[in-house]
Specification:
heteropentamer, A mainly alpha (about 300), B alpha/beta (about 325), C alpha/beta (about 325), D alpha+beta (about 500), E mainly alpha (about 290), C: alpha/beta, Rossmann fold, eight-stranded mixed beta sheet, four-stranded antiparallel beta sheet, 12 strands, E: about 70% helix, binds adenosine-5'-triphosphate, binds magnesium ion
Chain lengths: ~300, ~325, ~325, ~500, ~290
Amino acid sequence: MAKYVIKRLVLLIPVMLGVAFIIFSIMNFIPGDPASLILGESAPAEAREQLNEELGMNDPFIVRFADYIWDALHGDFGESWRTREPVFEEIFARIPTTIYLAAGAMLLAVLLGVPLGILSAVKQYSFLDVLNSVVAMFLSAIPAFWLGLLSILLFALKLRLLPSDGADTASAFILPIVTLALPGAAELLRLTRSTMLEIIRQDYIRTARAKGASERIVIWRHALRNATLPIITVAGMYFGSLLGGSVITESVFSMPGVGSLTITAIRSKDIPQVMACVLLMAALFCLIMLLVDLLYAFLDPRIRARYTK
Amino acid sequence: MSEQLLEVRDLRVVYESDEETVHAVNGISFSIGKQETLGLVGETGAGKTTTALSILRLLPDRIGKITSGSITYRGEDLLAKTPAQMRKIRGESIAMIFQDPMTSLNPVLTVGDQILEALELHNDEGKSKEELDRRVEEMLELVSIPAVRKKDYPHQFSGGMKQRVVIAMALACNPGLLIADEPTTALDVTIQAQVLAMIGELKEKLETSMLLITHDLGVVAQTCDKVAIMYAGEIIEYGSVEDIFGDRPHHPYTVGLFGSIPDLTVDTDRLKPIAGLMPDPTDLPEGCKFHPRCPHCQEQCKTTRPPVIEKDGHLIQCHLFAKEEEAGV
Amino acid sequence: MSTPLIETVHLKKYFKTNSGMLHAVDDVNLSVQAGETLGIVGESGCGKSTLGRLILRLLDATSGEVRYNGENILTYNKAQMRQMRKELQIIFQDPYSSLNPRMTVSEIIAEPMRVNGMYQDKTALQKRVSELMDTVGLASRLENAYPHELDGGRRQRIGIARALSVNPKFIVCDEPVSALDVSIQAQILNLLMDLQEEIGLTYLFITHNLSVVKHISNEIAVMYLGQCVERAPSKELFQNPMHPYTKALLAAVPVPDLRYRGQKREAIRGEVTSPIDPKPGCRFADRCPHATEACRSQVDLVERTPGHFVACTLYQ
Amino acid sequence: GCGGQQDSTDDAAPSETGETRDDLVIALATEPTQLDPHYLSDTNSSLVVLNTHDPLFRRLPSGEIEPALAEDYELSEDGTSITLYIRQGVKFQDGTELTAEDVAFSLNRATATAQSEAYTESFKEAVVVDDYTVRLDLLYPDVAVLPLLTQGNNCIVPKHVVEEVGETEYAGNICGTGPYKLVEWQKGAKLVLEANEDYWQGAPAIKRLEYRILAETTTAIVALETGSVDLVMNIGALDAQLVQENPDLAYAETTSTTTYYVGFNCAKAPLDNKLVRKALAMAVDKDAVILGAVDGAGVVAANVMPDGTTGAPAEADQPTIPYDPEAAVKLLEEAGYGPGELTVHLAVREGATKKAGTILQDQWKAIGVNTVVDTLERSAMLNDMYNGNLEAYIVGDVALTMDASMQTSTLDSSTIPYTNSTFYSNPEYDALNDEQAVQMNDPERRVEIITQMMEIEVEDAPRVHLYHPVSNIAYNKNLNVEVSPTVEGYFTYGMSWN
Amino acid sequence: MTKEKVSSRRKKSQMAEIWRRMRKNTAAMIGLAILAVILLVAIFAGVICDYDTQVIAQNMAQRLQPPSAEHWFGTDAYGRDTFARVVYGARISLAIGVAATVGSVLISGFLGAVCGYYGGKVDAVIMRIMDMFLAIPTELLALAIVASLGPSMANLLIAVTVARIPPFTRIVRSSILSVIDQEYIEAARACGASDFIIIVRHVLPNALGPIIIQATMGVGRMILTAAGLSFIGMGVTPPTPEWGSMLSEGREFMRYSPYITLFPGIAIILTSLSLNLLGDGLRDALDPKLKD
Ligand SMILES: Nc1ncnc2c1ncn2[C@@H]1O[C@H](COP(=O)(O)OP(=O)(O)OP(=O)(O)O)[C@@H](O)[C@H]1O
Ligand SMILES: Nc1ncnc2c1ncn2[C@@H]1O[C@H](COP(=O)(O)OP(=O)(O)OP(=O)(O)O)[C@@H](O)[C@H]1O
Ligand SMILES: [Mg+2]
Ligand SMILES: [Mg+2]
């Protein structure tokens, strides 16, 4: 197992290099020289030239990329061109918010989506099932900012129940988390439903029933464990993508998360900042996927066997 | 005949979907006495599994329906039981071994846990965890699997071992009746022999009755006391093994079935298969269901359902013998 | 003896797996004369299908030769091989997964001929398809049916018609009747034997059903864990099995005859050993009641009586 | 803990007990980037810096300039140097006293820094004369030197701190003379400032100042309505209406010093044709643009010089291109374009300029010109603008110094392409521009020259001036605050609770 | 040899079979009906309203009107008729959704087929590259693409298409993998078929099921992604009426004139809903296991 984990971690290196290359090239395709962005519209020409030179913008692309990677390998990811602070300073300041949001949203999505999905599958074609499915499709089709703004107007302004912004109090996280979680819950509901439907047709479920097991035992002990695999994959992907930041929700609720930082950085062509953000997110994403795989092994002995060999 | 453990009378089962109705079982009757083994034989799709599932009331929800008949176990009507009462019976009084050992075990639970579960579900005496654990080990050893392997998962077992685990699970609560649905079809001959031998031994030891479903006549000849031959949802011939394998008059389908098997002991140039194929269960022929394939088909067979003729407990459902009988009388 | 139609020489196939080399086929030497049937029997997973696939080059052999009319076809290039494909065909075990569910019956049967460009003319092709359907006993009204609408017996006939479509000389029948019911099984076996008689086909017939193999084969090879442990003419093998595994196999067959009822049959004890990196020597030794130290070293297949080969220390 | 204070801000009005509040929460739409004065490059950073640091002079919301760290000044005869008399007894927030050393150091540091170049272009060097006197030498006489010294980029920093922590580290260790000190910066969320009790003008009334980052306008207004924010700047016209209807809130507005205009690339076909430019300009109904772009919250602009710009005539007297679509069609015909034959690419950015562009598209369609509106990212827009790739673009120009020179230079050929991105080049205009710059002692002559330049501009139409947007604030009605056209006006020291 | 005598089997083409099963599914039929209406509206947009005078023509005097007899859905900030814009928007939004889906399905179909069929190194390399793209958040990728290529309908399309390729490729690959194990693929090889014929005639048609479902759901998702991009200012160019950009244009008026966002919002939801219903129905109809 340890060997497997190490192998996966080693595999992270080429993937991160690839991600770095993709982002670095895209950022270099984006027109505009950083100097004009840093200095503003009214800065004189010489100042721009000088700054571009300082930032190494006049070197060929490959040289710059190699320099970047070289420095990064030495732990130096550079300073933000915009704020002149080490790139990770700002990221780390924002990461807690992002993690609270992502974890909260995923938890809520799972807590809502999975039980409702199971209920839907167990009572297939019932009124409840139809209602669940329609509501789920509805939720997954609502644009995020619409949901966000509407919930602010309703809960923060009309009802004055919850704050509309800020990341100071726990209550401030409620609305953004709900907004983020609903589409995820909808997706998980549909996935859980279809997976469970498939699994309750399996022979071993019939075996359990033939032993005299009650529906509760059949569903929770026999079916759910087997249905968990696809569910955690999707939940993991969802969590991963949430960690990448959710620009829209962050902006609507004024949550200082990593997503809005990345967007700001892309907009101001702040290459070191963008690189650091995306690399960190990609690394997190890969780690989450690794975790998901390990969780697989924990839940499914067949997969465990494959790793331990 | 001794007191009957299980009695099935005029059972009819259909599978109904929006599109079509499959008449899977069409009025069959049979009974199993204490410590008896009944072999249920028939081609694919004859309705064997359906019959078994009906006894345990495990037909698929909504689609599978018992339309008439009665199933009595130890004098009690199973069809009148509530779901909770039924759950008590399943596993404890009547246990079942399913067709495919590879998929009948839950891949994420240890085999020990799966056997233990059956015990826990029917632990009326309130035995302690240790006692139940010991019983699990006992059961595993009974089917020749070292007790230490109870912590293993199904994928770590070979097909034959998995089937043995399923058997251990089914026998864990000392059921009065064991339904074995083609317990060896998915296995190799050598493993098949092992498993069959084991079931036989255990049956003796635990004094269990058995309903053995198969389409392998060889297996029937070696293990059963009574045989019912099914065709298109009906029992067309029923009797003791001697009746079926002996030199008596048989239903033309039974004859065809025997003719289809290459005999290891006799050399034949050609096999004599039954012509044609099973009828479509959604659109069964009128009269005798076998008539389109029957070499002795007469006008009458096409229109009227043949009567059941009994001769010393050997039942045949065929016009051919009805006539003989008439002629004889 | 004349040159066999098909001959394998030291044929080996190892699969790389996570836990080591899996010896699926390990040094198998067989030959089949034109117009005859060689039966291959053995436990599940002993390498029967792999052997069949190797002969057709559906898998690449690890080493060894496959000779067709004396020529090693493993050295053929793509174009030569395509020519060969018309001579060598296969009928698969599973009539459910071996037919493309999105094609109609006539499309499936016509596919090999289309691929090989055998008929330019559409109507001629259609005529040939009808002929083939007739040969295998499929009603012509089924030509536009899809496989899922048919039962196993009819599906298997489609498979046979497909194999016959390119006029092959040699057909590997990989458990063609295992998935079928006894009565349908008999229909198919009769069909195969009729075809052999009519057009002189040669079969390699793979199965683990001993009654079937006895019925159809001229010669039988018994495989155990990738190796051929015994080979003899069909009758001889049944009358005089030598290898302990063959004996166990024969004894295990349940016979539909009350005379054998109650007879204690000697079942093989123990589980199949792993085919991954097997130890040298007889692979059956762990389960064999007669195993001795001698079994731990290399055991060769030797001819004990004319035409009867066995690999066992009891007969060396 | 900020939690307790959070609660106290939940009430919009002063608490029932009659105690007045001493904290203030201001909403900002974008986050300041960094707080080192000399590296400032965006408005909101300046806003904060001007509360933590002091400039030498302060501009009041009214536009007047009053002395701050400089008590007085003296301009040399030839206008190439200015002597600054530094206020005595002023202390930095670390307790050390402000000296001429610090002032000279700060001005020279600003001059040397690229980010501040626009505000120090005319500076040569600052020289310490004595402990409280500094002489700032200029490269050329610059009429705008006082306004420049009010800017955030020319704020005074302590020399010893910069030298101690290092040039680039000052941003993380700011220590000004201003009325507030930074105590907490939650990136992306808020900045918390605390009153400097030793401020040289006396301790400020507001003791705790929080800038909260609220990107979405709707969220900011909701926060104002629910009382979690006390002041929001530059809200939309519809929101303004809503605020005015709310009895708990107050609203004030003034015209800003920003001018939105369409710049034509005079070096690129088809807009290198004066007739075409003029036609397009004549087809613009500025009132409709104001309605669509800022929901009516704007004033028609005649030129880039809003009222109050030194050296410029009153805006009502400025020459301008009339709205005359019929004449525009004729001009187009003259230029050889029939209806539908001309297509213009108009670059805009997300927001007001995009809306303005959408309206222009419709208005130009009326004279038979097709318009493709390209919404660009800031980086792409600047890049293409400087490289002369754009045909037309809409931008906002801030009259930073409120002096005409800075505004006229935007059409001077010497500033192509950065300041003058229209690539407009007219020697006559350039000559006049040079001439007005030295009319330090003859303001009337200067106005004359500038009016002349405006006439040239109307004739050649290198750009169409659209509007000056309204600068507004919405706030808790108990807050004393004045609306200002510039960021320098939002000096929190002047704010207090009733 | 025994000849066929039984003749009870009905003959049906696969399409007809699927359609027959779909028809039984009420939800799918509701979805189909909604979609049909939306499609009709998109096709006949030009008949329902005039582009020049209703969709893009501005009328500042009439801005921000609530729904009325004259303007069914009210007017937007430029005084344009929201109804006309929603109707025309159907064209644009559906075009974006469909084109992007088709594009990504084609590309990932090809990549997935290559990966699944050949396996080995090709597979490893392509899938690792896909992983890289998967690790980059969708919005950022799209934003970066639009920012580097400039905003236009085509680039918006490229952005949403590219963002969808990695997950799609995975799906295609796994459904291909489930097919290539089947013996009929081996049978095709045994009769001498080339790789190309095998992929095109045998593998792809059988792997189509999951791909079709992803595609139907993809359209709705693409429209939503495009709407999300509009939010961060990456939408279509004005005055094109696209639902997502209408939605984000209207968001600052949400409190004052909610109709501007309400109707395009409903249009997006309905489209997505109908495609989801249809996709679910199609999945059920295609799955032989669900025959009961
Ligand atoms: N869930 C179901 N829905 C519809 N028809 C079904 C269902 N299960 C079984 N059938 C049909 O009912 C008939 C009897 O099936 P059953 O499984 O009882 O046969 P069997 O004798 O056990 O066959 P086998 O030997 O293949 O196991 C068959 O025609 C079968 O197709
Ligand atoms: N592609 C493969 N990769 C790895 N191992 C394989 C592969 N194909 C077959 N094997 C292994 O090779 C051995 C022989 O397999 P093969 O399918 O030839 O057996 P068989 O005799 O045909 O069995 P059955 O009777 O079950 O069809 C088995 O252990 C199998 O697991
Ligand atoms: Mg069955
Ligand atoms: Mg095989």
